[in-house]
Structure formats: structure tokens, C-alpha cells
Design a protein that fits this description.
The chain contains nine helices and seven strands, in the order βαβαβαβαβααβαααβ. The protein is of the alpha/beta class. It has one domain: NAD(P)-binding Rossmann-like Domain (Rossmann fold), CATH 3.40.50. A seven-stranded parallel beta sheet has the order 3-2-1-4-5-6-7, with helices on both faces. Strand 4, helix 4 and strand 5 form a beta-alpha-beta unit. It binds NADP nicotinamide-adenine-dinucleotide phosphate.
Length: 248
């Protein structure tokens, strides 16, 4: 039976590219989305038209009840889980720390930190040999921002990704003896719609030429790193990070 992978936030950008590439490489893929059903359906269609299996599942990863329902849907549809890509993530409008509201901080940390913890928890419960399962693999999406800091723009986002760095390391060690590897990818400036949602749709193209490799990265280039970490080719790698930053 082919392994089953959940990719959160897979209706567009890095998540969509990861879902499509994973299906090409033999995974059955749960394509999670929050609001854009048409986009998630088109990712599923792209996969199924190529003769592979995929399922769109709506869930706001910031809502525990919806996350539980999403995992239960995978249980009932496929009866197994072998991998999780904690990809869903948000930015906010540029702001200094001395301008940030608690509402903004709570949304940022709920969607970028707590959601990844809750999805990881549910995945471990379904994959760990400690819970009677066959093992599995988790890949988290951090960001170069966690090391750069996001000053004047989004220190909250950068800090949320710092928490992901720690989740990756700590969880990897916690479940290393239970058949589960946990790693992360830290993208730099990648050409996706996330920049528009942060109020700067032209950011990737504007910043690209100033980067060491002289251009922004693509979602596919990030997906390639994620798929390596998901695959048995990385079987002796856990608790680590791959920068996909064009040298930044
Ligand atoms: P994106 O283009 O903005 O796509 C975000 C995806 O997440 C969409 O599919 C969106 O689906 C989904 N999503 C948003 N809120 C959600 C929620 N509450 N529940 C479930 N899904 C939700 O983002 P991206 O650029 O591909 O980024 C993917 C990941 O890489 C994020 O963790 C991001 O922080 C990280 N990253 C990106 C860059 C970059 O330059 N692009 C750099 C570093 C790190 P709906 O629209 O359907 O809600």
C-alpha cells in the first residue's frame, strides 16, 4: 500500500508544489486548505489526472476541533498516516514590535506555532511505534526569518519560526527511537502569494536581484528539499534544517 502524507496549507504555493511532487513520488496525499476550496480541488485534480490519489480536506489548522476532524477524515479514508508536512503559515502587515496588538500576536502564534504542535501531536499518535504504528516522517516549514529577525517588518513571524526551529529539534529527539524522523526546511524569499497577504505582492521580484543567487526561489525548489526529507534517501537525517535561500 502506498504511504499517506498530509500537507497542511496545500491549496497554493509551497504546499501545493509539495503535494503534487509527493504524489509523483508515490505518496497518497491529503491536501489541506482553509478557505480556497477551488484551489485545493485543482491541486487534487492535477494529482488524480496523473493517475495518483489525493483528497482535499478543509480545516483551519488554528482550530483544534477542525484539526481533529481532518485527521479523523484521513483515518476513515485511508486508515493510515505515514507523513506530515507542517506547511500552513501566515504573515501579517509590516509592523514594528512597538505597534503590535495582542490580537495580532495571538493569531500569528496560534496559526504558525500551536497549529504545528497540534498537527505534529496528531501525527505522532498515528505514526509512533510507541503507539503501535509503523513510524513515519515529519517536515516542518521554518524560515530564514528565524535567524534574520524580521526587524521593522514582522518580528512576530520570525519569532514564530524560531519556535518551529525548536519544535523540530526537540520533537526529533523525543521520537527518534519511535520510528519517526523530524526535519525542517527554511525557505528564503520564495515567489508565492504569501507576500501579497503581507501587503507586498511584488516583494519576491523586488528583493530577488539582491540575493546571492540573484533571484527569488520557486515553490518547486522548496518542495524538492521537502521531498528529500520525506524520502528514505534521508533515512539517517533527523532534527536538522535545510536552508533553501539562494545563499542568503
Ligand atoms: P502561501 O502562498 O500564502 O500559502 C499558504 C497556504 O496556507 C495556503 O494554501 C492557505 O490556504 C493555507 N492556510 C493559510 N491559513 C491556513 C489555516 N488557518 N489553516 C489551513 N491552511 C491555511 O504561503 P507559502 O509562501 O507557500 O508558504 C508556505 C510555508 O512556507 C509557510 O509556513 C511560510 O511561513 C513558509 N515560508 C514561506 C516563504 C516565502 O517566501 N514564500 C519564506 C519562508 C517560509 P487557504 O488560502 O485555502 O486558506
Amino acid at each position: 500500500m502506498k504511504p499517506v502524507l498530509l500537507v497542511t496549507g496545500a491549496s497554493r504555493g509551497i504546499g501545493a508544489a509539495t503535494a503534487v511532487l509527493a504524489a509523483q513520488q508515490g505518496w497518497r496525499v491529503a491536501v489541506n486548505y482553509s478557505t480556497n476550496r477551488a484551489a485545493a480541488d485543482s491541486v487534487v485534480q492535477q494529482i488524480t489526472q496523473a493517475g495518483r490519489e489525493a483528497l482535499a480536506i478543509q480545516a483551519d489548522v488554528g482550530d483544534e476541533a477542525q484539526v481533529l476532524a481532518m485527521f479523523q477524515r484521513i483515518d476513515s479514508h485511508w486508515g493510515r498516516l505515514d507523513g506530515l508536512v507542517n506547511n500552513a503559515g501566515v504573515v501579517d502587515m509590516p509592523a514594528r514590535v512597538d505597534e503590535m496588538t495582542v490580537a495580532r500576536l495571538e493569531r500569528m502564534f496560534r496559526l504558525n506555532i500551536i497549529a504545528s504542535f497540534v498537527c505534529a501531536r496528531e501525527a505522532v499518535r498515528r505514526m509512533s511505534t510507541r503507539h503501535g504504528h509503523r513510524g513515519g516522517v515529519i517536515v516542518n516549514l521554518s524560515s530564514a526569518a528565524s535567524r534574520i529577525g524580521g526587524s521593522g517588518q514582522y518580528v512576530d513571524y520570525a519569532a514564530s519560526k524560531g519556535a518551529i526551529d525548536t519544535l523540530t529539534k526537540g520533537l526529533a529527539l523525543e521520537v527518534a527511537g519511535e520510528g519517526i524522523r523530524v526535519n525542517q526546511v527554511s525557505p528564503g524569499i520564495i515567489d508565492t502569494e504569501i507576500h501579497a497577504s503581507g501587503g507586498n505582492p511584488g516583494r519576491a521580484q523586488a528583493v530577488g536581484p539582491s540575493l546571492p543567487l540573484k533571484r527569488p526561489g520557486s515553490a518547486q525548489e522548496v518542495a524538492q528539499a521537502i521531498l528529500w526529507l520525506l524520502s528514505p534517501a534521508s533515512s539517517y537525517t533527523t532534527g536538522t534544517n535545510i536552508d533553501v535561500t539562494g545563499g542568503r
